[in-house]
Amino acid sequence: xxxxxxxxxxxxxxxxxxxxxxxxxxxxxxxxxxxxxxxxxxxxxxxxxxxxxxxxxxxxxxxxxxxxxxxxxxxxxxxxxxxxxxxxxxxxxxxxxxxxxxxxxxxxxxxxxxxxxxxxxxxxxxxxxxxxxxxxxxxxxxxxxxxxxxxxxxxxxxxxxxxxxxxxxxxxxxxxxxxxxxxxxxxxxxxxxxxxxxxxxxxxxxxxxxxxxxxxxxxxxxxxxxxxxxxxxxxxxxxxxxxxxxxxxxxxxxxxxxxxxxxxxxxxxxxxxxxxxxxxxxxxxxxxxxxxxxxxxxxxxxxxxxxxxxxxxxxxxxxxxxxxxxxxxxxxxxxxxxxxxxxxxxxxxxxxxxxxxxxxxxxxxxxxxxxxxxxxxxxxxxxxxxxxxxxxxxxxxxxxxxxxxxxxxxxxxxxxxxxxxxxxxxxxxxxxxxxxxxxxxxxxxxxxxxxxxxxxxxxxxxxxxxxxxxxxxxxxxxxxxxxxxxxxxxxxxxxxxxxxxxxxxxxxxxxxxxxxxxxxxxxxxxxxxxxxxxxxxxxxxxxxxxxxxxxxxxxxxxxxxxxxxxxxxxxxxxxxxxxxxxxxxxxxxxxxxxxxxxxxxxxxxxxxxxxxxxxxxxxxxxxxxxxxxxxxxxxxxxxxxxxxxxxxxxxxxxxxxxxxxxxxxxxxxxxxxxxxxxxxxxxxxxxxxxxxxxxxxxxxxx
Amino acid sequence: xxxxxxxxxxxxxxxxxxxxxxxxxxxxxxxxxxxxxxxxxxxxxxxxxxxxxxxxxxxxxxxxxxxxxxxxxxxxxxxxxxxxxxxxxxxxxxxxxxxxxxxxxxxxxxxxxxxxxxxxxxxxxxxxxxxxxxxxxxxxxxxxxxxxxxxxxxxxxxxxxxxxxx
Amino acid sequence: xxxxxxxxxxxxxxxxxxxxxxxxxxxxxxxxxxxxxxxxxxxxxxxxxxxxxxxxxxxxxxxxxxxxxxxxxxxxxxxxxxxxxxxxxxxxxxxxxxxxxxxxxxxxxxxxxxxxxxxxxxxxxxxxxxxxxxxxxxxxxxxxxxxxxxxxxxxxxxxxxxxxxxxxxxxxxxxxxxxxxxxxxxxxxxxxxxxxxxxxxxxxxxxxxxxxxxxxxxxxxxxxxxxxxxxxxxxxxxxxxxxxxxxxxxxxxxxxxxxxxxxxxxxxxxxxxxxxxxxxxxxxxxxxxxxxxxxxxxxxxxxxxxxxxxxxxxxxxxxxxxxxxxxxxx
Lengths: 702, 166, 330
Prior knowledge:
In chain A, helix 10 packs parallel to helix 16, helix 13 (472-484) runs parallel beside helix 14 and helix 15 packs across helix 16 (674-686). In chain A, 23% of the residues lie in helices and 25% in strands. Chain A has a domain at 4-28 and 444-550: Aldehyde oxidase/xanthine dehydrogenase, molybdopterin binding domain (Aldehyde Oxidoreductase, domain 4). Chain A is built from 16 helices and 28 strands. Among the domains of chain C are: 5-50, Uridine Diphospho-n-acetylenolpyruvylglucosamine Reductase, domain 2, CATH 3.30.43; 227-329, CO dehydrogenase flavoprotein, C-terminal domain (Enolase-like, domain 1), CATH 3.30.390.50. Chain C is globular and about 60 Å long. The chains are: A alpha+beta, B alpha+beta, C alpha+beta.
């Protein structure tokens, strides 16, 4: 039996800043995204969306639309294919006239051009019976419920010791409520699909984070075998979770294509449509209570979270999860409660759980440090746990303190005056803040990789993985090269299709772990077989296929990455405008496979965190049930001009237990804690403690 | 209508064009140039940025009829000879590309910037490119790419003028 | 989007005639607002007359020392024009604070003045709006009103005008040249835009078929020291929460003259006459600036989400005047 150390891959290509292998295609505009795949005589779909939040379409008059020249078919629940009941109320659209949220698909027009489809869709008249809808999340609702578990399969509530008792007797206490608003993923490429039926089988060119995830969701709806649905997705223009599991747009495209068999139907969503049909991050209300002794040692931590889900399908964001791991305290409690509303279905958005869950508690840690008279770094160090606080398991590696210390050194934290509102640069109030980052190490089951060596010295590596911009093409090539002990130039990677061996999707920062591990296993088997051939490749080639190996350490260790983020924030004393001239993130996330793409992932995560801190807020109008600011002019994401000096680095972290690459996944780590660091810095600048994101200028006006 | 205009230096004709459809649609669907991306169709993201008579513009907001007789340049026209253009090369090298969907528009906007401003300051770069939203990179590597492209553009200008002097 | 006809105009009279005779015809300028509205279904013209190639693309000095800006001059060109940057910096700054480079390269002087509100209920044909369809009701009242008016609104409409350029032109007392079915006329820019009253569908005093041909900037030496300050939720590429266009003439510590307009606070660029009046002859001090700002905003009536605009407008005006006075002192 080999030890963890012995099974670790020797790094050669891994760790180098290999230039992105799909870079040339992308800078020349030739990388094909979903609807850009060349297809013969495509038809175009424009959807019909519900203009009420709850009720029933009692009549849909499609006559004017059908009469438009160029219209091929009009789809409604009257002629839609019957779907099998799979218990997924989000995807089972057009089975009746029932409306469960505003913007829900009621049908669509298939036409020769997108303009005709759009125009004809406008001509459809819908008569509704309206029911009274309910779309407002409040913590004081009397119908909050406890979900059976939270995403993906965590306990809803946890408790240890006597938190209430410990809080009652604590020398220093904090009791505060924090909130994060509804946010939308908004990848730059809108969700898009080409659907085509031929001989009873369905082909989807889809912008997805998981070709097999899409297949698994779509096939049973249409009562097809998995292999009768082919999903192709070599390049994806971002996803951040919303392209993880398919949304109703994929089903609508497949339904529409059924009406024009043999013709591919193109269905790119508009930006506005994305705000009602492809998911969002739930708003969260986070009630934090902390108790500590005079030395600043935490005796109690509680976090009670209230958030929303949709009546048509449950999604329970795991917001309290990081609190179960971050700091030591003998008495602790976490809980999640949901309001089921007549809204679209929330979904994964970059670091679901950890991202909102590292806002409230990390601001609370700042407040508590001040209350204890301690520097916020020292306060965190004092409450560093020796083992995972809830499970008691040792950490496979945990370098939060090292990140805090290294970040403090690099940021120039040592001479920081803790008093708020005392530094000024012209009309700007200046402050600095810190917060921690964390993200779990997830491994998805089920992936397989096939590697084929041919006598020409090439190694074809095949796996149905995807690249949503993270760098999969490049990183998996590096891993395969090192596992095969060849150069990256000898590896031909194929990903992005269900014609390749089965694979999990890009989610939970698990891609490299879940795809890289079977690639390493297949490479090792292949090399053993090559050895049997005396090291030469026979004319017919040699092939090996391996699945995701079991990792015995998973049950023995708590596996998480950590980091520390530092922010300098300027707040305009006159106008309240908030600017972030400086952000530094120091992370410990195992071995970084590709320094170039990896750095960009972390930088991008922090910038999305900055965007969350300063800008992002989907405003739901309770009277109509829709997101009012449903475009990129009104839903602000950070522009280049919002970003200042942005620096990322990582510690060399050796972790032989997580997987053979020693890597932990970095797609989501960077966004966790950023908003808290910025909020803490804004407090330091102004003395105004904001507990509700985003940090809009009006919150700092005096 | 028959739309006649110049695309990447070549005279182009497209038939049966409705004047009200967007220039972006004409480029992507009628001329087979999918490089320019449609990410908002409202001028709110910059992914469709093309040169229109020499200045960057959002192709999604230009009615096809308005493009008649004008010169359009897209990402497909940034290559130099058989290889990548300096701006394209800089983006690949600096790691400024992630999902790649904002990239074509950014390349056109960057090409324009480094042509207009020999040594742009960081503040100039950030403001000049504020109309090109990117959701992946955090802009930092884009900044590196623009600085790199500006340096290369400036030094190639210098060597060219050097040759002229000689 | 309905299938409209498209014509390109070579002459102003032809354009006016073409639009004038068809009630559902409209002029098409840079398209940055109208083309969007076509897609959204907010505008449903039967005919668009493209006026971007009319010969109104000059920026010329007038005999009286003013400057005439043609209606088809691009926002980016106007912002970059040396005479504008030197003599009317407030205008250049306002232009550069609007939208993005790609949009400023398309947008025209005439079109920018005629931008329609960004009220999200106006832009969404599934929510009632009196501006889009009179009599439907105002969804903004009782709804999301962060970007809405605090001055001069009516029960029918609480929308704001989104242009930055128009705020600067308002402070500068520019004049708008119009040619229409009934001939030519000049309109002070301060009288071009309307308050909503009970006709919120009318943004301006222009009649159907009226075409803006040019904007005159008057000779105004004090405008050489002028400033545009825009406060927004994002550092760039965002509409104003509030903005201030101001020019200040101070002598020996006393304000001789002030020109002030506010953006983001009303259905039109808001000329701050009350504040200007309060400042004339007052000492150029923080206290005078604050009193003038408070006088201007005394009648403010915020709605659900925008009470913050009162202190924000006050503080931004004070800060802008303070900066200008400081500049003067140097």
